[in-house]
Design a protein that fits this description.
This protein is mainly alpha-helical. It is built from six helices and no strands. The protein has one domain (about 1-170). It starts with a helix and ends with a helix.
């Protein structure tokens, strides 16, 4: 009886492992969606309120939650310190430091970091144009993340369950 209970726990552990892998794929999509919303809000701040970027970043950090909030908050903190004398440098450092907190690919991070050279270094309309270009690229990344989640998520959940069953059968 105890052996059956242990084997059942092994199968459940396999299922949970597959589910965790699936959730990691899903979190990339959610992170991209949240970042995209933050960047659209940043474009609005630049276009209408014309607040300094650190102030806008700080306000966006209060509106958003999780790692995305941390990215904006860190950019505001880094501006003028730690070797980030420009808004672009602060943004690039913030994106680099948040990579472990966000479930993003290297390409996602490259797209976000590409904003650095234009933030605060050009006129408002130019910054908005660059934010819109990044937004379009993020839409493509979101579609890729959704498709990847659908395709590989099902695979991970199935492999987790089957792996748990295989281990249980081998141990039985």
């Amino acid at each position: 009886m105890l052996k059956l209970f242990g084997l059942g726990l092994i199968v459940i552990a396999g299922m949970l492992t597959g589910q965790l892998c699936f959730m990691q794929l899903e979190s990339r999509y959610r992170d991209l969606e949240s970042i995209r919303g933050g960047l659209r809000a940043l474009a609005t701040e630049i276009d209408y309120s014309r607040k300094p970027l650190p102030v806008a970043w700080r306000e966006l950090a209060e509106i958003h939650d999780g790692a995305v909030s941390g990215m904006f908050d860190r950019a505001a903190d880094l501006f003028g310190s730690e070797g980030a004398s420009t808004a672009g440098q602060a943004w690039a450092l913030s994106v680099r430091k948040c990579r472990e907190e966000l479930s993003l690919t290297a390409e996602d991070l490259r797209i976000l970091a590409s904003l650095g050279p234009t933030l605060g270094a050009s006129g408002g309309s130019d910054q908005i144009r660059h934010l819109q270009a990044v937004d379009e690229r993020l839409v493509g990344q979101m579609n890729e993340a959704r498709d990847d989640s659908r395709r590989r998520g099902r695979l991970f959940r199935s492999l987790g369950l089957l792996g748990g069953i295989l281990v249980a059968v081998v141990l039985a």
